[in-house]
Amino acid sequence: MNPFRWPFRAQFLLGFLICAGLLAYAIFLQLQMGLEPCPLCIFQRIAFAALGLVFLIGALHGPSNRPGRVTYGVLAFIAAGVGIGIAARHVYVQMIPPEFGATCGPPLAFLSETMGPFEVFRTVLTGTGNCGNIDWTFLGLTMPMWSLAWFALLAAWALLVSLRRMR
Questions:
Q1: What digits encode the pLDDT tens for the residues 35-94?
Q2: Phi-psi region of 140 (alpha: psi -120 to 50; beta: other; left: phi over 0)
């Protein structure tokens, strides 16, 4: 069965289910395997949740005209683009040798109590905590590398689905 021949709603629902599955797996790793997320991991989760929400709303709405579909595709692409930026920053932080001290700062709870939301976001993305630790790999790739790949795939999926010719 070719997923490119599925209706728009089913294709966007697939995007939502992938995001939900990735978030569920991240929560499983945290709660069952004891892998504590760093601030950049949390921001990636938020980006996956936002992307999944766009996919879900697009699937529920199922616009029948091209401009509506393109709008959902662009919104999903933007959400995925934010995720790509966060995941790329996380990969960069992990690839810097530990002696250079690339980390992402104190725990997010502490930052939230002592700073405003924009300062927290800026502090985390400038890289100062435990984001440089590599606690999990699969096929030689770290979790942020997998997140980056999934964000890129989902961004491409959103554009392909929304820009394809309507029947």
A1: 878 888 888 999 999 999 999 999 998 888 888 888 999 999 999 999 999 999 888 888
A2: left
Locate the domains of the chain by residue range. Answer: 7-163
Is the domain spanning 7-163 CATH 1.20.1530.20? The answer is no
pTM above 0.70, yes or no: yes
Closest CA to 127 of 83, 93, 100: 93
pLDDT digits (tens, 9 = 90+) for 118-159: 776 666 555 445 776 777 778 988 888 999 999 999 999 999
